[in-house]
Design a protein that fits this description.
Chain lengths: 407, 181
């Protein structure tokens, strides 16, 4: 248990300050509530004065936070808010919603670092060196070369990347989160010391769009990983070369030239045509939107430029056609708020009695009973018995397979 | 009469057994509900025959109004100091329940492995859901089917399955006729 002198005044001050701001409370109001002067509260927030326990409890309640959130043992972390906020136009009317999303991004990043710290399980990843987008070279060709290199490096071959999020997490070492953002924001990205490259994707968007955003943000990781940023859905008349590179990278990474051309030729050869139904099937196979696939086919000169515009003008409804063709896009979009590894770290820490059930529920962003279900799903595995039946094996997560005999 | 302070983990399990007003007072204990536990929204989950899961909130005010659960908060001074220090490594519900139990010499009702471990290390007596159910059934001569129903409801509605190192794990398994569900 922590001793009073072990409470970190800087961390506590920083969290109190963030909690107060998130609640829209001024320093004057908080000082008056607490019955101290504003300079005293200011000193507390700067970390030059350690608040007494009663003050911590009262302020936590006033700000709608738990005491654990304020005093919990956590490593100092990079503040994302100022960097990401700088990438958002100040004229937007939904800055409050954006700030909330950034705050949740920050909490997820902090929680991930905390879980790695508790479990002593830092992800060891060797990132590829950054690519420098050449000014005069053909941007599309360059993006294609980089995407081919990355597909080789991640060993995903020519096939559609069914588990894109998992590939980026497990093989590339990225941390991906899914958070509700204003609808016109696709995602955000930032490099966090001791954790690595972190991405958030908009929860409100369909799985296909989320995959595109992930691939696009991966392009940022490869080309400018130390620069945090925000990506929007809206088409800008003239995109900066960095954004154009990321778009071209995403297109090549998700829909590589050679296999797409091959699939197109195979259909055209066998049927003598390439119909809208074939387009829908191809987009479903590659887990991208019909729009993204049509534009890719246009880019590869397989269909005429303007095909997508024409289809839209004629009232083409891709979702309706996909339904008629019974083309189900597999549920492979990044739906969970946090990565699989994050979930397993939390469950393992709980099974080893390193965290309480309340902490587990906090890490997993759910109520306690739902957290219990998640634990069961992780530790109980279905196996086939020798007679062909099915049995559930409960795995003792806390048990070491290296330091003790399995017998 | 022994004073017992509840943490959230145990409270959920006890609520799953049924309306606390109908059975908890039969046990000669005084049950205290810390503010941090009362502040936490708790739910039970029922699965219907068509496998639809329904999340139902537990209204603790009914139990407080009936005097079954007595609200309590950390007192200014050493109790708050201990609560804050425990909250560095535990969430508020477990930390406050333990701080109150330790400073007032009460028992802690908990099923949380970390909270039980810390409490025992600090010399706090721990009471688990299994012990509460076993003693209640013995005191009030609850038939075997009644105990089965209680444990089954805990497993189904609170999704609580005891781990092999849980106190009275063997008893729990025996009542339910083998391995927990």
């Amino acid at each position: 248990m922590a001793q009073a002198h072990e409470l970190d005044p800087h961390a506590i001050g920083q969290r109190l300050s963030a909690a107060r701001k998130a609640r829209g409370i001024t320093q004057e109001e908080a000082a008056e509530f607490l019955g101290v002067s504003r300079p005293t509260l200011s000193a507390t927030e700067r970390g030059t004065r350690l608040p007494v326990p009663e003050e911590i409890v009262r302020l936590a309640r006033y700000y709608g936070r738990s005491v654990h959130e304020i005093v919990g043992r956590r490593e100092g972390t990079v503040e994302l808010q100022p960097h990401l906020r700088a990438a958002v136009p100040p004229s937007r009317s939904d800055l409050g919603e954006i700030d909330s999303a950034i705050a949740e991004f920050q909490r997820l990043v902090d929680d991930y670092r905390e879980l790695e710290h508790i479990e002593g399980a830092q992800l060891v990843v060797e990132y590829p060196s950054e690519v420098h987008v050449p000014r005069r070279a053909d941007l599309r060709q360059f993006a294609e070369d980089v995407s081919e290199r990355e597909r080789r490096r991640l060993a995903v071959g020519d096939q559609p990347i069914l588990e894109l999020r998992r590939a980026l997490e497990d093989c590339a070492g990225l941390r991906t989160f899914v958070v509700g953002l204003p609808s016109d924001i696709a995602g955000m990205y930032a490099y966090v010391a001791d954790l690595g490259y972190c991405i958030i994707v908009n929860r409100k968007h369909p799985a296909e769009r989320q995959r595109w955003t992930l691939a696009h943000e991966y392009g940022h990781f490869l080309s400018e990983r130390h620069k945090p940023g925000v990506d929007y859905l809206c088409e800008r008349a003239r995109k900066p070369s960095g954004e154009s590179f990321c778009d071209a990278f995403a297109a090549n990474f998700l829909m590589p030239r050679r296999p797409i051309r091959q699939r197109f030729y195979d259909v055209a050869r066998s049927t003598g045509d390439f119909k809208v139904a074939d387009l829908c099937k191809l987009s479903a196979d590659y887990l991208v939107s019909v729009q993204a696939m049509t534009l890719r086919l246009e880019e590869l000169a397989l269909v005429e430029r303007g095909t997508w515009s024409t289809l839209r003008e004629k009232g083409f409804k891709p979702e309706r056609l996909k339904k008629e063709l019974e083309l189900q896009v597999p549920e492979t979009g990044p739906e969970a708020e946090y990565p699989e590894r994050y979930k397993y770290l939390a469950v393992a820490a709980f099974c080893k009695a390193k965290i309480t059930e309340g902490q587990l529920a906090g890490f997993l962003r759910c109520d306690r009973v739902s957290a219990r279900e998640i634990v069961r799903e992780c530790v109980n595995r279905p196996e086939t018995t020798s007679s062909g039946g099915r049995e559930i094996i409960e795995l003792p997560f806390e048990r070491s397979l290296l330091s003790e005999s399995p017998s | 009469m022994t004073d017992v302070v509840l943490d959230t983990c145990c409270l959920i399990n006890l609520c799953a057994v049924g309306d606390l007003r109908t059975w908890l007072p039969q046990k000669a204990l005084k049950w205290y509900l810390p503010r941090a536990v009362a502040d936490e929204a708790i739910f039970l989950k029922a699965t219907s025959e068509d496998t639809t899961v329904q999340k139902s909130p537990v209204d603790l005010s009914l139990y407080q109004d009936a005097g079954v659960l007595i609200p309590c908060d950390v007192a200014v001074g050493s109790e708050t100091d201990l609560f804050v220090r425990l909250a560095v490594d535990m969430d508020d519900g477990e930390a406050m329940a333990l701080a109150i139990a330790e400073t007032r010499g009460w028992s802690l009702a908990s099923d949380d492995r970390k909270a039980m471990k810390v409490a025992r290390r600090r010399g706090v007596q721990v009471l688990t859901t299994a012990e509460v159910i076993r003693d209640w059934s013995a005191d009030t001569h609850v038939p075997h089917e009644g105990i089965v129903t209680a444990l089954t409801r805990i497993e189904r509605l609170a999704r609580f399955i005891p781990a092999p190192d849980y106190p009275l794990y063997e008893w729990w398994c025996e009542i339910l006729g083998g391995h927990p569900n």
